[in-house]
Amino acid sequence: MLLQDNVDVMSFLRRRQRLLAEEGQVSVALGEVRQLTSLGPIKVMRHVGNEPFHDSGSPLGFDLLSLWQWASSDLVSNATRGILAEYLVAQALGVAADSVRDEWAAYDLETPDGTRIEVKSAAYVQSWQQRRLSQISFRVSKTLAWDRYSNRYGSESKRHADVYVFALLAHEEQQTLNPLDVSQWEFFALPTVVLNTRERSQYSITLPSLRRLAEPVSFHELPRAVAEAGMVQRRAEAHAEVHAEVSG
């Protein structure tokens, strides 16, 4: 029966190919892969929300803003909260204006002085049914960087940012939870060198462990904390370079 199914599928595909070829839509044999010239990465343009969906220029009556409302209104969900946390950090550091989030970048943000930022988020209250508040931990594992220009992963697994910002939606009451209220968030800025030299897990860090390494700061205090963490990271890297030269 499986063999007959495969024969039927191939017959259907061949008939479909012949029909399309007659219409001038197909120029390659079945089973071949169409060869394209090398395509560079698409430059992502910043949208405003009023761009309309249309059918060859004929408006359909809904716009890009309606997609954003449909797809991203649950600000407490893990995926959307993570993006929101990145956005809050970007706003606090003054790097959100006129920029677009790069989902596949090796790190999340970069400050004007070149400090690379990785943002991790967590929350006590989730969108789903809970019997208790969530235990807070953040993933900090090393990764392979992906290059959008070559479409290849790097060869070295490491932490690619200079500073990690841990964004905790710390409010514990579901009825008054509002991720848009920055007073409900706590932020921790940590130089990457601290994570690299930890003796405990290199995969994740719990909130108690994080509190032993960094003080929580508010949204408005975050730029100072990031600047200080970046300075510590640069000093550590400079010291490591000197040590390597002396040892060499």
What keywords describe this structure?
single chain, 248 residues, alpha+beta, 4-stranded mixed sheet, two-stranded antiparallel ribbon, 6 helices, 18% strand, globular
Binned strand content: 15-25%
* Mean residue pLDDT: 89
SSE pattern, N- to C-terminal: HEEHHEEEEEEEHEHH
Which structural class fits the helix and strand makeup?
alpha+beta
Silhouette: globular
Helix content: 25-40%
Put simply, the count of helices is 6
Structural Rg: 25 Å
* Strand numbers in spatial order across the main sheet: 3-4-8-9
Largest sheet: 4 strands, mixed
Oligomer: single chain
Number of strands: 10
Query: Which spans of ≥5 residues are poorly predicted at pLDDT below 50?
Result: none
Distance linking N and C termini: 68 Å
At a glance:
The chain has 248 residues and is of the alpha+beta class. The protein is built from 6 helices and 10 strands; from the N terminus they run H-E-E-H-H-E-E-E-E-E-E-E-H-E-H-H.
Explained architecture:
It is a single chain. With 248 residues, the protein is of the alpha+beta class. It is built from 6 helices and 10 strands. A hairpin with a 5-residue loop joins strand 3 and strand 4. The longest helix has 26 residues. The radius of gyration is 25 Å and the shape is globular. It starts with a helix and ends with a helix.
